[in-house]
Design a protein that fits this description.
This protein is mainly alpha-helical and 217 residues long. It has one domain. It is built from 8 helices and 4 strands. The strands form 2 sheets. A two-stranded antiparallel sheet has the order 1-2. Helix 5 links the parallel strand 3 and strand 4. The longest helix is centred in the N-terminal third of the chain and has 19 residues. It is globular and about 45 Å long.
Length: 217
């Protein structure tokens, strides 16, 4: 008997998992989201949420949601500046939120809406995408993610071309099993933050055999 009709395409399976997981997490974390929003509002003047246009799969723009981590007067620092730990433009609460990745939690709504996935390359802003090379645009073949291979492999401590290379490696080899490994590798980062030497999946060592301190941005 041919059971081919019962098989779910991996991309559809991933989308179904994303939607179910995002719904579940938004319900379970609802009290925490309310508390975090209140902390942001009480910490410094300004809204609890920060919205920004990002570019998703196929080059389509969408509105990304985050908890605000900057002083309102600093909203003009964009586009695309790298923010490292200790940046004075970040609010006191923002430092904690960013270190634990809690500022990204509102993007569960983006996952539910289909703009994003739990795992994938992080979405860039339009001015960054405008400067993409044809090779860089390979990132746009999939939905952007809450976390991704580059995020668990050094992220902000890596030069931009290395992060792009990690994202391209992911796009070419993506699978639900790889997504699960990335999700598991993300959990320690929520507790201790990102480190320059992070390479839990061994991909940096594979594609950058000369990787070392000289590759750290």
């Amino acid at each position: 008997m041919n059971d081919g009709g019962l098989r779910l395409h991996p991309d559809r399976l991933k989308r179904a998992f994303d939607a179910l997981a995002a719904t579940f997490l938004m319900i379970v974390l609802a009290p925490a989201l309310v508390v975090l929003a209140a902390i942001v509002r009480l910490d410094t003047p300004g809204p609890a949420l920060f919205t920004q246009t990002r570019i998703g799969r196929g080059g389509r723009p969408f509105t990304l949601y985050k908890f605000r981590t900057f002083h309102v007067r600093e909203f003009g620092i964009f586009p695309g500046e790298e923010i490292r730990p200790g940046d004075p433009r970040v609010t006191p609460a923002g430092h904690f939120l960013r270190r634990a990745k809690l500022d990204e939690l509102p993007q569960l709504l983006n996952v539910l809406l289909g703009d994003m996935s739990l795992v994938g390359p992080r979405p860039d802003i339009p001015i960054q995408v405008a400067d993409y090379t044809p090779q860089d645009r390979e990132r746009l073949r999939v939905r952007p993610g809450l976390t991704g291979l580059a995020q668990v492999s050094g992220n902000v401590w890596l030069p931009w071309p290395d992060r792009i290379a990690l994202d391209r490696w992911y796009v070419r080899r993506r699978s639900n099993a790889l997504d699960l490994r990335i999700l598991v590798a993300t959990l320690p980062l929520l507790l201790r933050g990102e480190r320059a030497e992070d390479d839990p999946l061994g991909v940096r060592a594979e594609i950058f055999p000369e990787s070392g301190p000289d590759r750290i941005a």
